[in-house]
Write a sequence for this structure.
């Protein structure tokens, strides 16, 4: 009995053809397309070389036609690759003498950079279809390749039985449309330039339409996300720093349909600010090279529709509720972040400059900190979210500073009988102590946005905490709770953190820490070496 093994489905050839590839003159190329990628076999004089371009590295492909050339003589041959210019099919400036259809395939291949690092290298594969005497027939074949490649990029199930259907179908049309919110004031103020020069070319290569809105004032993104018809877009791309991400996320939770939006419409960020902690954390999590092109991994993820769940933390103070995606801090690092705003034109260097200033004028603060170790379960059950939701609320931290301000009873807490949240403005929130009305909108102003979103897992601020919580009281140089790896591009705060591990990494620097100790701590942040200082009780963390 003879047993034959079948070829794996992923490696089964969907399309195969011999092409004249413009970028590789005087060579014959056998091009094979499978679910895993594009295989280029170069054959020339007893020499065979093979290159495989993974489908996940291809972002798009376009069918083009040669452009009419300026002629210096009565007779001219078909343009060679050195001077070929192509245009869209519906352009009026076409070269009728060239019946070829050109398929441009755009890929960003992961290659080795200097040393052990890697980078994405832009590659264009140009395939020239000229097997038929008429352009229409050549274009039909090129469109068939384009349709199948596009469907593979989207993750559709494509089999050999579908090939005939695709050859008879209409041209592939992109069903996605992106909303782009760009903050021109983020960081050094290069948001517009970053979008036009770095992001737009990739969107054009992927043939993904978008709607661009430039933020005009503080909380513009927050108000826009809260009030717009968000379902007309398949995703949101934020161009700027961590500030515009904060606005967008909190604007999302001010929508009554926040759960549906969070489940169906992903949010991405293209770094254009000073810190860019979230963009750096995402690249770190996905093992994507961040340097020398920080915007590239974000732009590629947006056009490829790569999505992953990420932890968000509900933060409740005596006067407001907000949702945080990166960290919550008090003391040294927070002072540097806030006070260095006056040096925004320096970009990320503003943090370095102000770190020196804060080291010279070192401060400490009195406070009381409660935290729940991650191996201790919450007393209150975690609320259920809709299936497929990308929200995951991790362990929380209570922090009370000794400023003389009393806690206010708020009816947005877990112990409250009400469920509606509202704010006085775009970024400040009102408690029942401050409000004078009742009903769904006690403030009486229908234009004031409410804060929806998942409720707290913890007792409200006025209620005592369970005995499983740990308490620490005294003077602190800083207390910083982070849920992602990076607080900034050069600040690897929690090396072992994951995007959605449900864990907060708590770092505590007690009062009495010397400037020398603090300097060593700061120097270690760029590589994560500061984590080793935990044995010196300078840093305490829970996982």
């Amino acid at each position: 009995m003879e047993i034959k093994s079948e070829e794996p489905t992923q490696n089964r050839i969907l399309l195969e053809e011999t092409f004249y590839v413009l970028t590789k003159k005087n060579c014959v190329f056998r091009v094979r397309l499978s679910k895993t990628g594009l295989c280029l076999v170069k054959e020339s004089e007893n020499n065979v070389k093979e290159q495989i371009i993974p489908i996940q590295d291809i972002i798009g492909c376009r069918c083009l036609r040669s452009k009419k050339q300026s002629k210096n003589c009565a007779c001219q041959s078909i343009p060679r690759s050195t001077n070929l210019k192509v245009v869209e099919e519906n352009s009026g400036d076409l070269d009728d003498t060239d019946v070829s259809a050109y398929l441009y395939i755009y890929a960003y291949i992961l290659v080795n950079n200097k040393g052990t690092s890697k980078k994405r290298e832009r590659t264009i594969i140009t395939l020239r279809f000229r097997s038929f005497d008429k352009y229409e027939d050549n274009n039909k074949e090129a469109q068939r390749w384009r349709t199948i490649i596009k469907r593979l990029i989207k993750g559709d199930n494509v089999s050999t039985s579908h090939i005939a259907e695709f050859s008879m179908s209409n041209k592939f049309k992109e069903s996605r449309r992106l909303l782009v919110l760009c903050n021109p004031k983020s960081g050094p103020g290069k948001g517009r330039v970053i979008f036009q020069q770095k992001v737009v070319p990739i969107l054009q290569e992927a043939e993904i339409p978008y709607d661009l809105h430039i933020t005009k004032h503080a909380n513009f993104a927050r108000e826009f996300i809260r009030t717009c018809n968000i379902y007309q877009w398949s995703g949101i791309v934020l161009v700027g720093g961590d500030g515009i991400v904060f606005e967008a996320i909190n604007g999302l939770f001010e929508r009554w349909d926040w759960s549906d939006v969070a489940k169906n419409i992903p949010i991405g960020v293209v770094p254009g600010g000073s810190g860019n902690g979230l963009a750096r954390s995402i690249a770190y999590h996905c093992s994507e090279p961040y340097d020398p092109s920080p915007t590239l991994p974000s732009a590629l993820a947006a056009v490829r529709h790569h999505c992953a769940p990420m932890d968000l933390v509900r933060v409740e103070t005596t006067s407001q509720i907000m949702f945080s995606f990166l960290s919550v801090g008090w003391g040294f690092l927070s002072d540097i972040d806030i006070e260095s705003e006056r040096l925004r034109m320096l970009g990320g260097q503003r943090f370095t400059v102000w770190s020196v200033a804060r080291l010279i004028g070192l401060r400490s603060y009195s406070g009381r900190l409660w935290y729940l170790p991650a191996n201790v379960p919450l007393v209150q059950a975690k609320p259920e979210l809709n299936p497929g939701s990308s929200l995951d609320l991790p362990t929380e931290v209570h922090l009370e500073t000794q400023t003389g301000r009393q806690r206010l009873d708020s009816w947005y807490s877990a112990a409250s009988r009400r469920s509606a949240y509202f704010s006085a403005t775009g970024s400040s929130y009102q408690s029942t102590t401050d409000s004078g009305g009742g009903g769904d909108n006690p403030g009486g102003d229908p234009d004031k946005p409410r804060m929806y979103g998942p409720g707290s897992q913890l007792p409200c601020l006025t209620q005592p905490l369970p005995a499983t919580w740990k308490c620490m009281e005294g003077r602190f140089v800083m207390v910083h709770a982070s849920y992602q790896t990076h607080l900034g591009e050069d600040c690897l705060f929690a090396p072992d953190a994951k995007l959605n591990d449900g864990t907060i990494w708590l770092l505590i620097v007690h009062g009495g820490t010397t400037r020398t100790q603090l300097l060593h701590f700061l120097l270690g942040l760029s590589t994560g070496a500061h984590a080793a200082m935990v044995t010196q009780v300078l840093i305490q963390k829970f996982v």
